[in-house]
What we know:
Two copies of one chain form a homodimer. Chain A folds into two domains: 3-43 and 295-397, Aspartate Aminotransferase, domain 1; 63-290, Type I PLP-dependent aspartate aminotransferase-like (Major domain) (Aspartate Aminotransferase, domain 2). Chain A is built from 13 helices and 14 strands. Chain A has helices at residues 16-22, 45-59, 73-84, 100-112, 127-135, 152-164, 188-201, 224-227, 256-270, 275-286, 289-315, 341-350, 381-397, and strands spanning 31-32, 95-98, 118-123, 139-146, 149-150, 169-174, 204-208, 233-238, 250-253, 321-322, 330-334, 353-354, 356-357, 371-375. In chain A, the strands form three sheets. In chain A, strands 2-9-8-7-6-3-4-5 form an eight-stranded mixed beta sheet, with helices on both faces. In chain A, strand 4 and strand 5 (149-150) form a beta hairpin. The radius of gyration of chain A is 21 Å and the shape is globular.
Amino acid sequence: MYKNKLARRVKQMENGELAGLMGLIDRDDIISFAGGIPDECIFPHEQLCEITESLFEKLGSKVFQYSSTEGNRELREYLVDFLAERGIKTSFDELIITTGSQQGLDLVSKIFIDPGDIVFTEKPGYVGGIGAIKSYEAELIGIDMESDGINVEQLETELKRCSFEGRKAKFIYLVPDYSNPSGIRLSLEKRIRILELAEEYDFYILEDTPYSELTYYHETIPYIKALDKNRRVILMGTFSKFFIPGLRVAWICAEKELIDVFSRAKQNADLASNSFGQFLLTEAGRRGLLDEQLQRVLPYYKERMEAMDRALNKYMPEEVSWFDVKGGFFYWLKLPSNVTGRELFRKAIERRVAFVTGNSFFPVDSDGDNYIRLSFSKTPVDDIDKGIERLAGLIRDF
Amino acid sequence: MYKNKLARRVKQMENGELAGLMGLIDRDDIISFAGGIPDECIFPHEQLCEITESLFEKLGSKVFQYSSTEGNRELREYLVDFLAERGIKTSFDELIITTGSQQGLDLVSKIFIDPGDIVFTEKPGYVGGIGAIKSYEAELIGIDMESDGINVEQLETELKRCSFEGRKAKFIYLVPDYSNPSGIRLSLEKRIRILELAEEYDFYILEDTPYSELTYYHETIPYIKALDKNRRVILMGTFSKFFIPGLRVAWICAEKELIDVFSRAKQNADLASNSFGQFLLTEAGRRGLLDEQLQRVLPYYKERMEAMDRALNKYMPEEVSWFDVKGGFFYWLKLPSNVTGRELFRKAIERRVAFVTGNSFFPVDSDGDNYIRLSFSKTPVDDIDKGIERLAGLIRDF
């Protein structure tokens, strides 16, 4: 009965395969490179308990009352300082708190995209971004990734083509730092060039920065937003990867007029984000715990990244290739041409090792057949070695 | 720059006036009947602190890790029992946790509505429902409220008209129990009739039940879902009004195939709801605190409702009328024909009393000029008397 009633956009929301695979990867007996989420073993549990207790005492029942739609003012003021340290001058009313960055992706898509509108993104790119953008029926055009970020010549060619057809892009969606799934960082030169193109062809840059703080060799490349002189950048950030994800608290930073539109859209989407999470993060920021925690997680994840790098170099056959990684959570592997990610996955599960197949990271699903994503964030060093050895053996068997 | 890039649907999201008014109503020196939110003074603070502490101990850092998209399984199992007590037989996989009921409204609208699709709702009806539905560009048709719920003859006439035009409604949005803003409860006869019409004209019923538990004279009318033999009802429920709202945890109950579609839509919307809130509610349910709290809030809000009833009868001029109220948070007042809600609001603020003007509760904004909504949930009994006296004086002055 329901099928003939669904909106057209639901056709763009199919990801049954991924959900099906995901069911398998949480089994305890499996070495999983699938999750791509932070490791709860490193969460600052003691301090979070302490802060919670002090909030209950200090704020009483306010902790459980509705928040405003724009979010806790003190938290937004903390973020103003956080961004100032990163070269971005802003004010609290240029920020809105979102229910995770995924909500940011949804709100940006909702307020900009009419069916058929053009949006650009990385190819491969973040599955949640692709999902949100496609769910509003955009024409999503993927731009190939190179070792220093998207191919800007290709972007320009596409922009020219669109312009020739009398069409404009609404925005480009980028994860410039250690992108998911490629692990690639966008070079300074390309950041500057993309800003120039945004000005020339009149589109927004949606800069999503979940991994920007997770830079294991302290490479400093400024946020695109920090280079932005013409308000071309809508910046999204989150506490989920370097701090804790379960609170579902993230933020968008943009010109005030746009924040007002986001606020109206958020009112329709979930009224407000959860209050406890906002109070907790505000206090964690005030006490310096966010900075402190960042210093704790950097060596923790770096060790795992290096373990994966070593294992890949040691075990993988020559026909397998990957990009160099210096931050974030991911390696992106190109398999030999006779091996598809889906086939490998089925065999890997039998050998009790898991990962994510490449297809979901492409605007057009069938493009990613030869790729897989490996995450090292949740896997202990010994398991990383064991798991990669098993995987390499399976690839050789093909 | 941003204006020429916004999606068409943003035009449907304008509510600048309401937001502007809302800025005024949280001042301490004002007697406010505006909020329509539960009173944090009655939240079970001590017990919530205790539960939190025990969760931190029992679950450790899992409390701060991502949840699944469908939500905590134990919480859904608790809801199965909760609904069974209310005559609704369901199972955990017919439930999905949402980030507040507002997200439920957004997801239902997103998966069903293509631009121009017909949706019915109460007139006056909940502003957040109207907002979500309009934001997906539905043609929203309001059905007049009578003292026992929507006018079902009018609904049938509209259904016939649509059918004659070759168009079908996707769903009707109802708050059957003590609706916001009217305070009206839908009669059993009308519930049955609407189910028949849903079958005859092939549409869904979106049953939103934030106030269903807040029945101050223990009137028992079954949920529409409990009368539903043909899976016509999508049921939404929340802990926000009778327990605490700041966690942003609510739920949708529907056939499994629809839950799968909601799950894909939610993945794009915010990945998952916050984990802490879900764990806290699960444990509160398990310990019987939800039931206990319901017994505490019923006399608390009933006293305020009766105070408002007394004050209205005592002070209001004869030309002001309202529906009888037996549950929920609201009174809906029709003003004398020479008084508009907006004019009254401006004078009321000067006299330090606030409410919400009627316009935002109508699909077409200009329809509510002569109405105002009064909420008694956050206002102490003495202030209710004082505030209504002031308001009545102002109305007489016109």
